[in-house]
Amino acid sequence: MAKIAVYPGSFDPITNGHIDVIKRASKVFDHLIVAVLVNDSKKSMFTLDERLDILKHSIENLDNVSFDSFSGLLVDYCKEKQLSAIVRGLRAISDFEFELQMAQMNRQLYDETETVFFTTSEQYSYLSSSLVKEVAKFGGKIDGLIPDYAIMKMKQKLSRGE
Ligand code: PNS
After folding, report:
1. Is the peptide bond before 13 cis (omega within 30 degrees of 0)?
2. Do residues 34 and 59 lie in contact, with contact meaning Cβ atoms separated by under 8 Å?
């Protein structure tokens, strides 16, 4: 049976650290679904459609990667799609506690899908979507941190005062 994994997240927007995890996870699993959380309560810079558009423009040459969105519990999505694994990236020790908690809660809710962690490459260990947004808001340089298409979309948004 094909091993299909999901890489869930807010991706507001995707960073080069996320792309690094996607590339590496796509080599380990037969298929990887990058799934964006639909989260109305969390204030995001980009809408769901914009986040998916940026994802699609940023990851073009990986045949076994597809894109989707989900709402509600991640484990329900895993059950519905009969997924083998949940992929998460670990940047630093500080990520570990929360990630462990989520993985254990998810396993307690549904133990047919395993959480698998990928350690991010060192050059991205400090990188997060929130930090990039903050730096961009104050005019700092964000080249090389997020894909060029995401930079263009972020600059458009900021220039419109959004
Ligand atoms: O990129 P993020 O914001 O760190 O991703 C967090 C995400 C989307 C993986 C997490 O918030 C999630 O799975 N949300 C869906 C709701 C859910 O299942 N919550 C229980 C998790 S233990």
Report:
1. yes
2. yes
- Fill in the DSSP letter of residue 143: T
Query: Radius of gyration (Cα) for the chain, nearest Å?
Result: 16
Atom 10, ligand 1: residue with shortest CA distance:
9
CA separation for the pair 99, 102 (Å, rounded): 5
The strands making up 114-119's β-sheet, listed across from edge to edge, are 65-70, 31-37, 4-9, 85-90, 114-119
Residue in this structure with the two tokens 């558009």, named with its chain if needed: 53
Q: Ligand 1, from 11, 33, 74, 99: best to mutate by most atoms within 8 Å of Cβ?
A: 74
Residue 21 · residue 89 · CB < 8 Å? yes
Specify the pTM: 0.96
What are the catalytic residues? 18, 42, 91, 129
Give 70-106 pLDDT, tens digit per residue. 999 999 999 999 999 999 999 988 899 999 999 999 9
Q: Which residues line ligand 1 (CB under 6 A)?
A: 8-10, 37, 73-74, 102, 105-106
Find how far residue 28's CA is from the centre of its chain.
Answer: 17
CA distance 32 to 124: 21
